[in-house]
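User: Hello, can you help with two protein structures?

Assistant: Certainly.
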Amino acid sequence: MGKGPSDTRELTLALGVEMLLLGGVSKKAPDAKKKLEAALADGSGLERLARMAKAQGGDPKTIHDPSLLPRAKQRVPSLRIEQVCRRHRRARARPGRSEHGRRTHARRSEGGPSRRDRARGKAR
């Protein structure tokens, strides 16, 4: 149990602590972290994940044996993925664009004057 990278483990614990605090399961962060570390150490966290997968129609065996998961037929080079992500970030950073790069148009509030009307001095 817990054979993943240490940075991923710490991130998972930090997010889990917040979830336990928000859910009212724990009152203090150190207590929440202890609960999570215990669940990782004794395997009960992994068993809970398997039950959740089964409840959603998945195969709980894949939780214990990831080799059972389907494999992609084609691998995409990581450099290509990085290029797509960079292009997506640039599109999002442009003013007047949505996160998908589409142009956005400001909508006037119901009953209020449009920007064009205000600019022309035709406000109601």
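That covers the first. Now for the second protein you mentioned:
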Amino acid sequence: MQWKISSKHCCLFFVAILYSGSISAHGGVEIIGNQCILTVGPFQMLFTGYQPTISNEAFCDDIPSQGDTIIALDFIDKVLRTMSTDYRVIKDIKGLGLNATIDTIGDAEEIKNSTVLYIPPQSYIHGTFSIEHHFPNGKYIGIVTVIDKQTSRSYYSVFPFTVGQAKLSLVFIGGVIFLILLATSLIFNIKKYNGH
């Protein structure tokens, strides 16, 4: 079996990597286009984070560096305005990362002991709320709980995030893979050309 890698194939692969980086999931948080969507059961919220003393840029999931942070949640589904919403951040002491779910983060006592931020349940009739907190470097899990007051049913979104932890982006990784494939293609083509 002979592999033939052309520069056209490399370009198509690179475009696919770039596209996959534009729609990525991070637990209950998903980047769609240029918006960060937080899914809580069947409902959705816009999620935006800021560190105004450090940068003017908004972030979606991982917090770039330790410091004062503002997180804003805006309800996409208007029915959320009639429900109670709470917000909690716990340290990821179990190292669950992307495997964190409401069932794996621990029992009530473990959650209470690892909590670094808690905003009790309340209704947000205007469909928006924000949180300000100073996060030190580390690994965390965010938990948004929405309670339907009429049915007493709870919906959860569990999403891991890091603070001040550098990580490679899919675009960077895709670029490296592209360069490796391009170099491989060039080497094969040079060998083929010199062989004739």
